[in-house]
Please model this.
Amino acid sequence: MSAKTIMEYRVPYADTDQMGVVYYANYFVYFERARNELLREHGIPYAELEEKHGVALPVVESYCRHKRPAKYDDILHISAWVDSASGPRVTIYCEVRREGALLASGHTVHACVDMATGRPARSAPKSLEPLLA
Model:
């Protein structure tokens, strides 16, 4: 497995539906939070990736499998790691757990895009290499 990040997040009331369960689409927000922490913890804040390296990582595919519900005030542990990188595509895998129990898992696929041209890059930028080790 490549570099991994695990962040803690307490579910606010705003994340839940009227049944007190985390609204299903919020898991993609959790994935994004973990993705940003993954980059930051490994010395590549997303803003720097754009500004310094001229690369954006738009999501081109997303998937989430829900196993158990998260609820208001739960403390979640959200992990993320680069699952694969091939050419301009980077796949980041995520898991959401509560007290060790898997609640949801999934991934996002990103296209490395050259911000100057708006076109896909030939390959993932070298700045992402620490995540692939």
Summary: The first strand starts at residue 4 and ends at 10.
